[in-house]
Write a structure and sequence with these properties.
The chain has about 240 residues and is an alpha/beta fold. The chain has a single domain (about 5-235), classed as P-loop containing nucleotide triphosphate hydrolases (Rossmann fold, 3-Layer(aba) Sandwich). The chain is about 35% helix and about 25% strand. The chain has helices spanning about 45-50, 75-80, 95-105, 115-125, 125-130, 140-150, 170-185, 195-205, 220-225, 230-235; strands at about 5-15, 20-30, 35, 60-65, 65-70, 80-85, 160, 190-195, 205-210, 215-220. The strands form two sheets. The protein has a six-stranded mixed β-sheet with strand order 6-7-8-3-9-10, with helices on both faces. Strands 2-1-4-5 form a four-stranded antiparallel β-sheet, with helices on one face. It binds adenosine-5'-triphosphate (ATP). Adenosine-5'-triphosphate binds near residues 15, 42, 45 and 46. Adenosine-5'-triphosphate (ATP) binds near residues 15, 20, 41, 42 and 43.
Length: about 240
């Protein structure tokens, strides 16, 4: 068995006294990739926000490579090596592609090869072509590439994507999935939230399904994606 990078146990959190998470348990091994799925409003984003310190948990433990995360400020958590690609991307609109990439760059301490502009441009040639374009001049797909590139420039050990391919054209989606496979192959650990179960299973080893603020199913991602009854039960409309 490989060592565990992230363990979340009994995580509870909510908004203004209204609970949204009721004891979430998740784990990611070193070099592993976890797909986090569930219908809208089931608590995926809330779990990621609590993990990143953006929403204070009310209970539970979060341990990243032996370090307790609860109570740490978001920038401390990011420095430990957690890189979030948030829902909505949050690109700086008045900075160029290149300025966006260097704005939050932090030196590599991950034990993985350090990220540079050249490496990000190698992964996403389209960003190299757009390097002098402002954030607000980019297509949705380019913005998502930039959001991923920006997270990589923080040299994360765990890259977390909330709605990795939402709203993107099929060709761009395919490019994002291909890049995530490359990153996984290079040893980067991942948590990926997305609705495309078979694409997720191409990248992720494990899946966790959330329902009403809890993980109600977990197991190999390929088994889940191949089981139409299970997918329908947890994700069907
Ligand atoms: N800012 C907020 N204020 C109050 N309640 C919120 C807020 N954000 C989310 N919630 C509630 O918390 C619960 C979990 O929402 P969350 O966004 O984590 O779900 P999700 O699984 O990420 O869904 P989606 O795919 O729609 O993003 C929902 O009941 C939602 O209404």
């Amino acid at each position: 068995m490989s060592a565990t990078l992230l363990t979340i146990t009994g995580l509870t959190a909510g908004y203004g006294g209204t609970p949204a998470l009721f004891g979430v348990d998740l784990s990611v091994p070193m070099g592993g990739a976890l797909a986090l799925v569930g219908r809208n409003g089931m608590g995926k984003t809330t779990t990621l926000r609590a993990l990143m310190g953006l929403l204070p948990p009310s209970g539970g433990t979060l341990t990243f490579d032996g370090v307790a995360l609860r109570g740490l400020k978001p920038h401390r958590i990011a420095r430990l090596g957690l890189g979030l690609v948030p829902e909505g991307r949050q690109i700086f609109p008045t900075l160029t592609v290149e300025e966006n990439l260097v704005a939050t760059a932090t030196p590599g301490r991950s034990g993985l090869p350090p990220w540079t502009l050249e490496r990000v441009y190698g992964l996403f040639p389209r960003l190299a072509e757009r390097r002098r374009n402002y954030g607000n001049r980019l297509s949705g797909g380019e913005q998502q590439m930039l959001a991923i590139g920006r997270a990589l420039m923080t040299n994360p050990r765990l890259l977390i994507l909330d709605e990795a391919t939402e709203g993107l054209a099929p060709l761009i989606r395919a490019e994002i999935w291909a890049v995530l496979s490359v990153l996984k192959g290079e040893g980067l650990s991942l948590i990926v939230v997305d609705k495309h179960v078979s694409a997720l299973a191409g990248v992720c080893d494990q899946v966790a399904v959330m329902e009403k603020g809890r993980v109600v199913h977990s197991g190999p991602a390929a088994d889940f994606a191949g089981d139409a009854e299970l997918v329908g039960r947890f994700l069907g409309v």
